[in-house]
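Backbone shape codes
____________________
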Amino acid sequence: MADSVTADPATPVAARPTGDPLLVLSGVNKHFGSLHVLRDIDLTVNRGEVVVVIGPSGSGKSTLCRTINRLETIDSGTITIDGEPIPAEGRALARLRADVGMVFQSFNLFAHKTVLENVTLGQVKAKKVKPAQARLTAAELLERVGVADQAQKYPAQLSGGQQQRVAIARALAMKPKALLFDEPTSALDPEMINEVLDVMVGLARDGMTMVVVTHEMGFARRAAQRVVFMDAGRIVEETDPETFFTAPSSERARDFLSKILTH
């Protein structure tokens, strides 16, 4: 397994210089019927930054994540990626989804394809990489996330933690500019959570731009440059992890932390 994965996960990821915007959301609103799930969201994620989004259930975290690569459309506002607005459809949207990879809580692997094929397919179909090179890249990435020995198995033969690590390798195979994680450990048994979080910490150390929706406060403490706290569709506060966990500025965040950190 790569050193970036096996590095001591308790050691905080060093802060990196920021100021080069990669993802910019401005005045974003989203409704599901009468429910106003995103309210005037303004958020900038700089290149190489790890932003962790936390908050109570129903606060809009996952919807925020899904709007960034247009899995959910927005009602108003703008979202730009590397200075370009999100395309509405077609090949340009497909290219965007290759540039901004997403890792879901439910893995979403192709059940009828082997692990190696899962990581190879997108490279060949979307990136037009030659199959031999795609297989080589896939093998390297499976080694990086610690599941190289599972390459010829099918997803159903893997544990949940192994499947999620394959899903991360599949996203990395597209050479994305950024990765979005929508509660990537919420479907895992407790003993499998750390093996996925360790891979994510390794990616953070390597400088991958990441937006992570999670309830894993330990990951937020050690891997994030910035914590974004949401409630009722709004960003209530955003600051560095040390400040957020020791001296949150809002009463709502203090109440949330008092409940979640005592369990």
Q: What stands out?
A: The domain at 22-108+177-259 is CATH 3.40.50.300 (Rossmann fold). The beta strands are 21-32, 35-46, 50-54, 76-81, 84-85, 100-103, 178-182, 209-213, 226-231, 234-239. Residues 60 and 233 are 5 Å apart (CA to CA). The longest strand covers residues 21-32.
